[in-house]
Description:
The chain is α+β, with helices and mostly antiparallel strands. Helices cover 44% and strands 25% of the residues.
Amino acid sequence: MAPQGLQTVESRHGPEETLSRLEAAIAxxxxxxxxxxxxxxxxxxxxxxxxxxxxLLFGNARGGTxxxxxxQTMGIDLPLKMxxxxxxxxxxxxxxxxxAWLAERHGAASVAGPVAAMTALLAALADGVAA
Length: 131
């Protein structure tokens, strides 16, 4: 069962290539890459094994601010995040939070326009990177 509010898309590429493609796509869209968190590297530092698992945090103030103006608690879920991960069979996936779910979670139904724009952006990024 998929976690509520999460969209997952299978990538045709391995984790490193998928991550590289995602970073390039984020830059091409003019978005800011705020952070790259490599969970597998962190696990390795403490002697634990974890398949490739990297989350990128990205976005821009023009897109996220209207959501935080509607519900300031949206700041806990912004900037946008996309996870690149490899499952136990070696398949690579991209996962991200659905903006409508985030808006519902924070009671920000009044921001339908920005939510729709974020939804389209995330879907385009994931589909383009995974293809």
